[in-house]
Amino acid sequence: MLCCQTVTFGPPPSIDAGSTSLWQLVRDLSAKRRDAPAIEMAGGTPTTYAQLLAFCEAVESELRLIDVDRAGLVAVLVEDTAAMAAAFVAIAAAAVCVVFDSGWHVEEMARYARRLPLRAVVVDANLDLDVSTWAHRLGRPVLSLSRDRSGALAVTGAAGRAGRPPALRSDPPAPGDAALLLATSGTTSEPKIVTLTHDNVLSAAAATVRAYDLTAADCRLNVMSLTHVQGLVGSTVGTLLSGGRLVCTPRRWDPHRFLDWLEATSPTWFSASPAMHGQIIAAAGGRGLDLRRTTLRFLRAGSGALSAALRTTLEDAYEAPVVESYGMTEAPQTSSTLLDPAGRRTGTVGRGTGCELAVLGEGGEVTRSGAGELLVRGRNVTPGYHGDAETTRRAFHDGWFRTGDLGSIDGDGFVSILGRLKEIINRGGDKISPEEVDRVVGLHPAVAEAVAFGVPDPELGEALAVAVVGVPGRSVTAAELRRFVGERSTQLKVPTHVRFVGEIPRTRNGKPRRQLLADEFAAEAARAAEGRPAPPSGEPDGSVLSIVLDAFRDALPERTVGPDQRFLDMGGNSVLATRLVASLRSRFRVEVSMQVLLSDGGTPRAVSELVSGTTAAE
Predict the structure, then answer these.
(1) Which residue segment(s) compose the domain that 552 sits in?
(2) In this structure, what CATH number is given to the domain that contains residue 512?
């Protein structure tokens, strides 16, 4: 018997919800929002909806001149994030956009390119020289993006011809035509290549518009990667579909610059990972900035579970609701909590946003009750993986896409994510969901983030460990956390090991790297078993200097760290300093100023003396 739950919304407030392709969407918006700003870089010149259409027409004409048709695969490698957003829309409207991340190693790009019959490559002038050289050596026509003196986007043809090419048009794409190819963010050496159609992209974007009541009056300040589905579909297309304004920020994340943009651009919402939200709060506290005075009407958290403590901190700081969403490359914007309090439930990612969600039971039955692998079907779901029919076949069960996530759906349709099936911890035969442990540990008021993972155990097979990032100004011990968890869940879910860290390692799109945490734990255990040598400083393990050195090494993982080396001389910068400040705060419960780290006295020994003096005074 099939039971599933979905939520039906009224007509979306989007002005162009009836568009059947990205090409039609841009044309319709240009007619209705002609001179309104569509996409801009923070502090830069906006691209209006009319200019976006002109840019799309120029890109299409250039592609047709080199015989690239609607089905042609066109790679995009663009560093300028506002240009990347416009290039994605333009390429997908004219052909099939294949996203390459300019942060990849050249060898990664080469492996990916070998799997695809690329017809052309679009690059921009800001690319790293090695990456640009590689793109030009691919043996495919290269189109170059640039900005003229007014800041408007321009495209230079493969033959080096600048300016407006002759208008060459073809029939608009059909809803089922491929618009976008994206590599999954898995840990395998060969990530799957997901196909998303125009209907997939527009349906997911429309779900974003409906879930958050977006209108032409909204402005999204985007800090999410524009090489992943959330930034491309939810952020870019969702904003355009509402007729609103998208403000992009540079690829390099900096919470202090974010606060400048927050004040300068007057956004109504933004989305960030829990770690980024925490860094913004810390940076605002350091400035004495009152976040209640911003223009934000809501915030969104994604790419990881949001702890109860951090949720409370955010809502108190901004006096605005915080929503959470769930989705994946293969099925973007699958569920979300809503702005209406009735559409939010603690510990859940809301209800299905225009698609159906169900659970696959152990016997293969599809049901909405209990826990099991989450299934999804709807117009937002990929038709499959490019060039891989067998993987596509395995990914579906009777027409439902298998997410690979363990979850549950309650009687009201609210979805809880319990973890990835492959990350389930087997403790002596008992299965433990790591995300369930994350949530319970995260309820403690001194915990900003918690990520559970399995570690080898000679008797049980696996033991439960948890990495914890503390809330600034609050403290908790491992014993207190174990007792706290034991009072709220079974003894099975009480972590054997608690590790306090400055930050959680994450993938490029913000997901916690549980396996890396497990590997680091195993390496530390191995060193301890072999008799770990004294640190380079000659200080015993556990000394203040030794712990400070460990914090410096965490912040500068590819550098040799000595006790008397300056932070700046070891490759430190303001972004890494923010991380190191958080790490030191977590380890010692004291605040070390960024100015100290960025000064001539920013050495591990000087910091350890400062920490020792502070803790002694307290």
Answers:
(1) 544-617
(2) 3.30.300.30
DSSP state of 69: -
Each residue's pLDDT tens digit, 221-265? 999 989 999 999 999 999 999 999 999 999 888 999 999 999 999
Q: Which of 529, 553, 569 finishes a domain? A: 529
Query: Can you give the length of the chain in residues?
Result: 618
Dig out the tokens for 345 from the structure: 């439930």
Split into its structural domains, the chain has a count of 2
Q: Between 434-442 and 478-486, two packed helices, what is the crossing angle to 10 degrees? A: 110
Q: Which amino acid would we find at residue 123? A: V
Q: pTM of the entire structure?
A: 0.74
Give the number of C-alpha atoms closer than 13 A to the C-alpha of residue 515, restricted to the C-beta side: 7
CATH of the domain at 598: 1.10.1200.10
Alpha carbon distance 384, 204 (integer Å): 16
Residue 544 to residue 35: CA distance in whole angstroms:
59
State which amino acid sits at residue 79.
Answer: E
Alpha-carbon distance 499 to 477, whole Å? Answer: 10
Q: Is residue 451 part of a domain?
A: yes
- 254-280: per-residue pLDDT in tens? 999 999 999 999 999 999 988 789 889
Helix-strand-coil percent breakdown of the chain, rounded to 5?
Answer: 35, 25, 40
Joined together, the tokens standing for residue 526 give 């191995």
Q: CA–CA distance from 566 to each of 269, 398, 579, 580 (Å)?
A: 39, 60, 16, 13
User: Considering the domain boundaries, does residue 340 fall inside one?
Assistant: no
Tokens of residue 297, six digits: 């009407």
CA 424 to chain centre: 22
In this structure, are residues 401 and 395 in contact, taking their beta carbons and an 8 Å threshold? Answer: yes
* Rounded Cα gap, residues 467 and 567, in angstroms: 25
Question: How many Cβ atoms sit within 10 Å of the Cβ of residue 299?
Answer: 23
Distances (CA, A) of 362 to 365, 406, 434: 7, 12, 20
Residue 434 belongs to some domain of the structure: yes
Element (H, E) at 94: helix 81-94
CA distances from 521 to 297, 469, 498, 528 (A): 41, 16, 11, 11
Pairing of the two strands 245-248 and 153-156:
unpaired
Q: 18: Cβ–Cβ under 8 A, 6 or more apart, which residues?
A: none
Report the distance separating Cα 122 and Cα 157, nearest Å: 10
Question: N- to C-terminal Cα distance for the chain?
Answer: 64
Angular region, 142: left φ>0, alpha ψ -120 to 50, beta rest? beta
* 323 within 8 A of 339, measured Cβ to Cβ: yes
